[in-house]
Design brief:
The chain has a 4-stranded antiparallel sheet. The protein has about 80 residues and is of the alpha+beta class. The chain has a domain at about 25-65. It has helices at about 10, 55-65, and strands at about 25, 30-35, 40-45, 50-55.
């Protein structure tokens, strides 16, 4: 077994979303995909009612985002 530890920077939550087109992140329990546009990239997903929604990177940062879906956000049926 290795005794190496993971650097602290890799374990902390990232502050900036990915910049690679087609990247997927979670925000508010819903997935958003980075779409590379002609002018600037935008995050595309749906709102709470299933309607299309676009967010800028700054909006995504303010709302909070993650690489994984939050376990507490799931609804039971």
């Amino acid at each position: 077994m290795s005794t190496e530890t993971v650097p602290a920077a890799e374990t902390d939550a990232p502050t900036d979303p990915p910049t690679e087109p087609c990247s997927v992140v979670w925000c508010g329990g819903r997935p958003y995909v980075l779409e590379a546009g002609a002018v600037r990239p935008r995050w595309v997903g749906t709102d709470g009612r299933g309607r299309p929604e676009t967010l800028s990177t700054a909006q995504l940062r303010r709302r909070g985002w993650s690489h994984r879906r939050a376990a507490g956000r799931r609804r039971s049926r």
